[in-house]
Design a protein that fits this description.
Strand content: 15-25%
Largest sheet: 11 strands, mixed
Bound molecules: zinc ion
Number of strands: 29
Structural class: alpha/beta
């Protein structure tokens, strides 16, 4: 028997609303320790008293086996006088200490809840809303602090006696799980179709499943909004949904009931399995298996499939439990909206806006307070690369390397997300979308208010993109209310974002490659192939892709053949009839384009790397016209992915006579045209081009004389796994420290994080 001790343990991180106090209670009780646990403004305070060995064991379990949703950032202990108390208590939760509660993201149904749902002896058998402290909706149902039932959309559902008993029992898995409910006291399912038929509860589910079986389109209410679902194996059903959604060729994501079905559809490796089955349950982009039971029109021309596992109890019921009539085993699950609009999350709005899209609606009476789209990730060399950080991740904070005053960064106009920060934490919003219409702007408004309510941060400073015409920046000026608005150059923000993610405090400069489609440059040009020496305060543009004319703006983005022709023209290569983009461009348009290029009329100079990928994709005949952003580059990567580049190499020329070196792709384009005429397959040309861009990055890094050894890769072009893998491996072999995105997307969805740091530096 060792001496009795008492410790005060301060735990910092995400420990509220995630079942942390019940975990502490059960752990301490099982070790026979006395004491208490309570929340405070920065985390949780635990006092434990008992045998020293038991206290050590308690601390070990606290650090090594916290509840799945808790993020423990630090554990500090302090010895205090023993007081001889017995028993362990959870301090009253109705405290009002004004502290900051870190709200949890929405979490996929846990295994224990799933087991209850399929157990005929359990009182939650077939319950569509089963949840516990380890799982269920959070972010999308909480209106404000503090996190208790009254501030969630479960407020109107009075708990039955049995649920109330679980809710108040500190030893129970449902202790203070705010959305807890059962079939007797929880929300109920409701189905209706366009012809006025309706059904409730099990019949509602049966109607919905039968609609899916028959090839219909079902609007189904999820966690962060409505999805449109149909049988992914039914070519006709998918084609109908595609045409109703006016979706072009943009891939649909699919949902499968479990991992084994994911494995039957895509080439799941260990890392993608971890991403698929994690509590966030994102859409994971995984190479599609030949012969996958999925219609071609789910993701036309795309080598990958965006796949996610069923993550709510309702999804699980849609696929059917053991004994149910079989239905589709892979479902298209796409946002319930018309392309470009925000996702529907309100029932009346869903009935109205989805009237021409859905054949039936599976709804329920638990309201969604804020919309939240599915997150999207891909895996590169075993590391998760975020493409869209939304449901399951928002509003988990990102730790900042340097403290900042209360700040709101409004992000950029494409794939908008915003961020609120205070001190060492930044909270990024869910995905808002492209800020090109009024509904997105109003979604931005409400997301901003919600994020501010959940974080209790009152921003004193606003940070926006330097683009004078960005709607996000306009919002910042309109809503400044006397607070200062600072602007940040787009690509500087990209590089700062990846620096922040990696905990860099900004005292050392990095060499940043910011490659994307578009961003406002201070010289008025459309930047996008930028090499910056940067810290948070400042940046120096040390190299960029040579300007080519972007003729007519968006029209050249939508028609990559125009970018190919512009690049050929800039490289001094003639528009010969054997070239794919020449054939794709109608004669009249070709003549008009030539006049534009020669006179510069209606042209903006651009150094965009994204547009160079578009141009080469068109040049090799992969894609001439796009229906969604980055389609040409995505398909080009898919074509090149498995090809062997061989020994032949393409090389960019670098003109160092200017203060910022000019990267000229003319030599690369010339070599590509020669390869095309030598009948080298597009796949091989693609592999050679990707390798050339990776080589360019290494060359520029090695030439940077300041002794900078840290290279940052950011911008939407680095969603390209082939390029990212090749560039980072080559850089690492050459001895560079390479930082890439793991927490926020390399695309404009990650901009707000960088804006926070730059806007507060200097
Ligand atoms: Zn659960
Ligand atoms: Zn109940």
């Amino acid at each position: 028997m060792t001496a009795r001790r008492r410790l005060r343990v301060c735990v910092q991180g995400v420990v509220q609303g995630v079942g942390f106090r019940p975990f502490v209670y059960t752990t301490a009780s099982s070790l026979g320790l006395a004491g208490s646990v309570r929340n405070d403004s920065s985390g949780a305070i635990v006092e434990v008293e008992g045998d020293a060995r038991d206290i050590d064991e308690f601390l070990t379990r606290l650090r090594d086996r916290p509840p799945p949703l808790a993020v423990i950032e630090s554990v500090e202990t302090q010895q205090i006088p023993v007081n001889g108390g017995t028993g362990f208590a959870i301090a009253d939760t109705s405290r009002t200490d004004g502290g900051r509660t870190l709200a949890s993201p929405d979490v996929a149904m846990c295994d224990e809840c799933a087991a209850e749902q399929r157990d005929p002896r359990n009182r939650r058998y077939r319950h569509a809303f089963v949840n516990c402290t380890n799982c269920g909706p959070r972010f999308t149902i909480i209106a404000s602090l503090p996190y208790d039932r009254a501030s969630t959309t479960m407020a109107g559902f009075a708990m039955c006696a049995e649920c109330a008993r679980e809710y108040t029992d500190p030893g129970n898995r449902r202790f203070h799980a705010q959305p807890v409910c059962c079939p007797n006291c929880g929300p109920t399912l409701h189905y209706r179709d366009g012809r006025g038929r309706s059904a409730d509860r099990e019949s509602a589910l049966n109607e919905a499943r039968s609609l899916l079986r028959c090839g219909g389109v079902l609007a189904v209410k999820g966690i962060g909004g409505y999805h449109l679902a149909c049988d992914a194996g039914n070519e006709r059903a998918v084609a109908v949904l595609r045409s109703r959604k006016r979706r072009g060729d943009k891939p649909f994501a699919v949902m499968v009931p479990d991992l084994s079905m994911a494995r039957g559809t895509t080439d799941v490796d260990d890392a993608s399995e971890r991403s698929l089955s994690g509590p966030q349950r994102p859409i994971v982009l995984i190479p599609r298996l030949p012969g996958a039971p999925v219609a071609d029109s789910v993701a036309p021309h795309n080598p990958d499939l965006g796949v996610m596992l069923a993550y709510t109890p309702l999804h699980r019921l849609l696929f059917g439990l053991p004994g149910d009539e079989p239905g589709p085993s892979v479902l298209v699950m796409t946002s319930g909206n018309i392309s470009g609009e925000p996702i529907c999350f309100d029932d009346d709005d869903a009935l109205d806006r989805l009237a021409d899209l859905a054949d039936g609606w599976l709804m329920h009476d638990r309201a969604i307070l804020v919309p939240c789209d599915d997150s999207v990730v891909r895996v590169v060399d075993g590391v998760e690369l975020p493409i869209r950080r939304s449901r399951g991740y928002a509003p988990l904070p990102v730790a900042l390397p340097v403290p900042v005053p209360p700040t709101l960064a409004v992000g950029a106009d494409l794939k908008n997300t915003m961020a609120i920060a205070d001190g060492r934490y930044a909270w990024l919003s869910q995905h808002i979308g492209d800020m090109d219409n009024l509904t997105t702007l109003s979604a931005f408004d409400s997301a901003q208010q919600h994020l501010q309510a959940l974080t209790a941060v009152a921003p004193e400073l606003l940070v926006a993109d330097a683009h004078p015409l960005y709607r996000s920046s306009g919002w910042a000026y309109r809503n400044a209310a006397g607070r200062p608005v600072r602007t940040v150059q787009h690509h500087h923000a990209h590089i700062a974002a990846v620096m922040a993610e990696h905990g860099l405090d900004g005292s050392q400069r990095v060499l940043g490659f910011a490659f994307d489609g578009t961003g406002y440059g201070p010289d008025g040009a459309v930047w996008g192939g930028e090499v910056l020496v940067a810290d948070y305060k400042d940046y120096q543009r040390v190299a960029h892709l040579k300007y080519v004319p972007l003729a007519g703006g968006d029209i050249s983005v939508l028609r990559p053949y125009r970018m190919a022709l512009a690049h050929l023209w800039a490289a001094g290569l003639s528009w010969d009839d054997d070239l794919a983009p020449v054939q794709a461009c109608p004669g009249d348009e070709r003549r008009a384009l030539m006049r534009q290029l020669e006179t510069g009329l209606g042209c903006a100079p651009t150094s965009s790397m994204g547009r160079l990928f578009d141009a080469v994709s068109a040049l090799v005949g992969v894609r001439q016209v796009v229906a969604y952003e980055a389609q040409a580059a995505i398909e080009f990567e898919g074509v090149a992915r498995h090809a062997d580049a061989g020994t032949s190499t393409y090389a960019f020329e670098i003109d160092r006579s200017q203060p910022a070196a000019e990267i000229d792709p003319a030599g690369v384009l010339k070599a590509i045209v020669a390869d095309l005429r030598a009948n080298v397959p597009a796949a091989v040309i693609g592999a050679r081009f990707h390798r050339a861009v990776a080589d360019l990055i290494v060359d520029l890094a090695e030439a940077e004389v300041d002794g900078i050894r840290t290279v940052a890769l950011s911008g939407g072009v680095f969603q390209n796994a082939l390029l990212l893998r090749s560039a980072q491996n080559s850089l690492r072999r050459t001895g560079f420290n390479v930082i890439t995105h793991r927490l926020v997307p390399p695309n404009d969805g990650g901009i707000a994080l960088g804006q926070l740091l730059v806007g507060n530096a200097g």
